[in-house]
Recover the amino acids of this structure.
């Protein structure tokens, strides 16, 4: 009876995560659809190049997806030292990703494009919205990484109790996929 209740609780948590990710996907699908429609406007910038820092961000988030996967595999194999090491590698890569995002925005500003005002364009305004909205979700993911890191040091996770770590890993992979989608999408429509 207790085991059945525990399984229901785990399924409910996973379902809530999936609903959240589907909701986020719908939000970004709407924004990218608006991006496509707006790209036919007269004032759309057709020669705008994404800063190289966004390419670096893409590589970093891809690598962080690999490190969190290795961390989860290490947990399942009972290798807690590797689990913590690769979890911290994920956190370091995440902060490096954020740094490169801010450097990318600095490059856009140095090109003379802002979010609003006379120096803004519809193209860069869309880019700001897409990246900042992703960044907000990403910060939520960073908070989750710190929570599971804290729980890992407290030895809360083990081979039979991985649900929190699994949910964090799924969400982190989702954030990585979402960024890669946005990056490729913006490259394709520029």
């Amino acid at each position: 009876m207790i085991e059945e209740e525990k399984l229901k609780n785990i399924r409910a948590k996973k379902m809530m995560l999936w609903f959240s990710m589907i909701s986020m996907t719908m939000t970004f699908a709407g924004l990218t659809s608006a991006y496509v429609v707006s790209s036919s406007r007269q004032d759309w910038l057709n020669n705008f190049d994404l800063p190289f820092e966004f390419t670096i961000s893409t590589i970093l988030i891809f690598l962080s997806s690999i490190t969190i996967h290795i961390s989860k595999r290490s947990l399942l194999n009972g290798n807690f030292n590797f689990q913590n090491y690769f979890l911290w590698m994920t956190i370091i890569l995440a902060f490096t990703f954020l740094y490169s995002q801010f450097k990318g925005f600095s490059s856009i500003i140095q090109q003379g494009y802002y979010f609003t005002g006379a120096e803004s364009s519809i193209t860069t305004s869309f880019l700001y919205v897409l990246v900042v909205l992703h960044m907000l979700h990403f910060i939520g993911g960073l908070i989750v990484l710190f929570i599971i890191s804290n729980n890992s040091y407290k030895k809360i996770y083990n081979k039979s109790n991985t649900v929190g770590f699994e949910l964090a890993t799924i969400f982190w992979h989702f954030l990585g996929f979402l960024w890669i989608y946005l990056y490729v999408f913006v490259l394709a429509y520029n």
Q: What stands out?
A: Helices lie at 2-38, 52-76, 80-110, 122-153, 163-188. The first helix runs from residue 2 to 38. The chain has a mean pLDDT of 90.
